[in-house]
Amino acid sequence: MSTVAQTPRDFNYIKPRKRRLSEYEAVSCYTQPDPNVFDRQGWYLLTAEGRAAWRPESTRLQHPHWFDFRDPSGLWQRYYVKLQAEQERSIERNVEDAAIAGTIHEFDAVWLNEIIGVHYRVWSFFEYGLFRAFSRAQREALSDTLGNALCFEAVDRIRHAQSTVLYLMELEAQIEGFKDHASKDHWLGDPIYQPLRKLVELLMATDDWAEIAFAVNLIIDPIATEVGVSRLIRYHGPAHGDPVTPMIILTTERDRRRNQAWTEELVRMTTAPELSSAESNRKVLGNWVERWTPLANAAAKAFAPVYERLPVRSGSIDEELAVANQAQTKILDGLGLGREGHR
Amino acid sequence: MRNLIEAHNRVKDFDWEPSYVEKTNWYPTKYKIPAKTKDPFRHLVRDYLSMEEEKDNRQYGSMEDALARGQASSKAEPRWMEIMKAVLPILNFGEYAAMKSTGQLIETIANAELRQGYLAQMLDEVRHTHQEAYLARYFAKHASDPEGFAQGFRLRGTNLFNRAGRAAFEAFFVGDPIEGALNLQVVAETAYTNPIFVALTEIAASNGDQVTPSVFLSIQSDESRHMANGYSTLAAVVSNPDNLPALQLDFDRAFWRQHAFIDPFVGAVWDYFQSNRTTCYLEKWREWIDADWIGSYIERLAPFGLKVPAGYEAARERVPWLGHTAAMVAYGAWPLQFWRFDPLTAKDMEWFEAKYPGWHGHYGNFWEEYRRRCDPRNGELALSLFPSLPPLCRVCQMPCVFPRIDISTVRIKEFAGKRHAFCSASCELFFDQEPQRYLGYTNYYELFDGYDLADFIVENGLLRADGKTLIAQPWLNQERMWTIDDIRAMRYEIRDPLRNQ
Prior knowledge:
The structure holds two protein chains of two kinds.
Chain A: H1 2-6, H2 23-28, H3 77-101, H4 109-140, H5 144-174, H6 184-189, H7 194-204, H8 209-235, H9 244-270, H10 278-301, H11 304-309, H12 317-334
Helix pairs in contact in A: 3-5, 3-9, 4-5, 4-7, 4-8, 5-9, 7-10, 8-9, 8-10, 8-12
Chain B: H1 4-11, H2 45-69, H3 72-75, H4 78-108, H5 112-142, H6 152-155, H7 160-170, H8 177-206, H9 211-238, H10 244-272, H11 281-298, H12 312-332, H13 346-355, H14 359-372, E1 411-415, E2 418-422, H15 425-433, H16 444-448, H17 453-459, H18 484-490
Helix pairs in contact in B: 2-9, 4-5, 4-7, 4-8, 5-9, 7-10, 8-9, 8-10, 8-11, 10-12, 11-12, 12-14, 17-18
């Protein structure tokens, strides 16, 4: 039958980003219904308070078709899980190898007890707070491709938090006298960490899924996480006999790069010159830069006493902050969101 | 060797009470949940990832390798393959809605044990969404007739049955998060995933479809964890007696909302789309829902104050007829669908009478007449066998024809200046309790009242690539397929039964 011979063999209602429809696009696009797309009757159920399944006002950014969003990583569940399973395996093996080789016993004592035992452990609470914020953000996002990217980031964050705990358990098992005290009291009361806790609590209270992603991936991670984890721990590890923790942090940096890339894509999509809302979106993004940059800097600056405790350190926290801010400004400049005047 | 219990205790100690911001009630709940309960199961993210990776490798590996090389999908019985076009898009929304439901449970339920369970489920649901979309695309590539597989996600929004599925699954996450968990985990997953993802694969396999079982059984291996989530959530809710009055009402509603769509739909899929006949849906319903879910699960919660849902007895009485009536409407309204239908043969009809004594007396004539109307040259539409299109239930969106057209429990009433139909006393009761929750959409007939059927088909993209043959067909005959000209010649007008009565 001729009609059968001509029939489409693919999801031709999805406009592919490249020449051919990718697996990522096929399994992700239009899995979220939308009254402005194929579900013109609207939502069949409202909550007792009168809200529908999704709300256009769930972000202050505006876009006529959120379904156009594509995560540059092209990750869907199968490859996301594969990637993270591989990362977790690499952590497990690194730690195991380091234990067998005795590397773990060569950690500097201050490094072990204060930097890893407290500072790095406290960071797991921050990551957990981000997990909470991103879990809600994925619930609210206005398209499937955005919801998936946010959901994967939520899982990234809980992975980071849990792998820190497991790592410290392994250190406990290997190093006599070392104990993971969980450091929750530091998280809750130590002045060093209060700006960081405030930061994540504000994120957990932010009613805008795009703002959460923008603030974390383009401002907070490049400034606070860069200084507090990448520079303070990853960079200084080897000088304190610790090549292991930096390997773990490198896996989180891989996630950070991916999350930064998709958030940059979100910014490009919402500020595309042909978009009628581009200018108002740019203002919204500018306000977010203004709101979150001082908070991220304050959180990072508060780590100064930790920095001071490093037995072997290069430069000062102010220098680290300046470098991180420069790099972060470059990211925003690349997106046409330079924050001159916002500081 | 890791101490798993200790690891669990530590990863559950992340929660704290924020002090820099006021607590926001993002998803209001009327329930009080204790801060500490039993663990639904013990999984660290690391173990979860490695387990799921292995399952994915097995499932996608077999689909890409042996099953594709053996052209498994093109050899399956066409009758069976056709209904997968309807099943996958709606099932997919169920998974997607579940992902949203778990996101709001993580936010709302301040209990570390439960949060651990919800977080794995959240990623599971992305997994299932992607598995089912992947399967639909796989069938679009490999099935003998890809029309319908290739467009299912585009067409589901205006499809009579898919839209009812969406209404049922919106209840997973539109409302009190605990009400969502009851709909999702306690009813849909614990009661219905066994028949859908396990038992239905027997039908698929015996009808030559070896691919669906690979996917569905892999999905079901996650569902058992979700059932544990449901049980733990329920146990946490019943542990506070103050929760019980609201819980029973929400549970009654959750059961009926899921039953009202799933039983007619799955019943029709099960019984009407198998060629090589095995079991019937009623047998499986009695095994999985009646004996297993009610008998071994819900009734055991009686000491805690939770009763069998109020509509359960009515549901049990209706179930023998629901699939047949749904099938009759689906077949009769075939031009509105996006899959092909295979009329029952005399042998099929014998099977129905044997499995459902009395079936012939209620449905036999319809099938005799239907067969005659399959050939467009006879100049009659199966739709003309009904005096009018059925009104759709304001609450569950199902056609108001159940349990059987001759004893339909339809009720119609006016509210806020408009007439509304309800399929049953239960749906009417839910509307009376909270009418505003069901008034946020435009009725199907309000959109299409007065349309010529041919215009409906064109506007909703229900034509094949040649631009004139319908995607849906009342039979599997490929020599004489219905075209838009055949439909236009019938001059059938879609009329809103509530407006034109």
